[in-house]
Amino acid sequence: MSRLYETMYILRPDLGEDNVEAAIERYRAILVENNVENLEIQHRGKRRLAYEIARCREGVYIQMNYSHPDGHFITQMERAMRLNEDTIRYLTVKLDPRQVETEGAEDAEPVAAE
Q1: Which of 15, 67, 75, 104 allows an S-S link to 19, with CB 3.0 to 4.6 Å?
Q2: Beta strands 3-11 and 87-95, pairing class
Q3: Structural domains present in the chain
Q4: pTM score > 0.90 for this model?
């Protein structure tokens, strides 16, 4: 059974569009190498940070959602993010599949309890 994961990372705001795309491709390649399923990458754009990080008040937010039977490769990907000076923050969480199904069903008709 595949587990659902979400990785959110923030890139420096002074990167050019080419460098942002290169960073996205670098992390996407790590996921593809490890045979993740249902990979979705969302470029959230430049946003203001709640507090200054590495002398930056803004950051470029990227969100990746994917599934995989085990998360052994996540340490490899997070190590690459930690060593890259362009990535100022990152976080990977394992999603609860029941919660994901519930969020998708919010628009559905309510079911009467018996």
Answers
A1: 15
A2: antiparallel
A3: 3-97 (3.30.70.60)
A4: no
